[in-house]
Amino acid sequence: MQQQVWAGVDIGKTHHHAVVIDADGNRPLSRRVANDEDPPVRLLADVIGLAETVTWAVDMRTDGAALMLALLDE
Questions:
Q1: β-pairing verdict for 29-34 and 51-58
Q2: Would you state the torsion angle of the CA atoms of residues 30, 14, 10, 25, taken in this order, to the nearest 10 degrees?
Q3: Mean pLDDT, the chain, as a whole number?
Q4: Distance (Å, rounded) from C-alpha 31 to C-alpha 41?
Q5: Domains observed in the chain
Q6: Integer Cα distance of 33 and 14 in angstroms
Q7: pLDDT tens across 23-38, in order?
């Protein structure tokens, strides 16, 4: 397990795209996920499993991002 990764999520109405970058600039995860409950939950679990510390960025805070933001806030 790595110590630190950075995860960015491009929010879309029906799908989001997430990319994770590690300290060496590698991309251990790049995934399109549907904007309903189960896929984002699985994405968060997979990303959290990559490193001890995850720093998240989301490109917007509008209604389309509500589910992802709520999950990240837990």
A1: unpaired
A2: 0
A3: 94
A4: 13
A5: 2-73 (3.30.420)
A6: 9
A7: 999 999 999 999 888 9
Q: Record the tokens describing residue 33, joined without a space.
A: 């996920």
Give the predicted TM-score (pTM) of the model. 0.89
How far is the C-alpha of 71 from the C-alpha of 74, rounded, in Å?
A: 5
Q: What does the alpha-carbon distance between residue 48 and residue 42 come to, in Å, rounded to a whole number?
A: 10
Give the pLDDT band (50/70/90) at residue 1. confident
Q: Which amino acid would we find at residue 24?
A: D
61 neighbors 31 (Cβ within 8 angstroms): no
Q: Name the pairing type of β-strands 2-10 and 51-58.
A: parallel
- Environment class of residue 18 by beta-carbon count within 10 Å: exposed (0-12), middle (13-18) or buried (19+)? buried
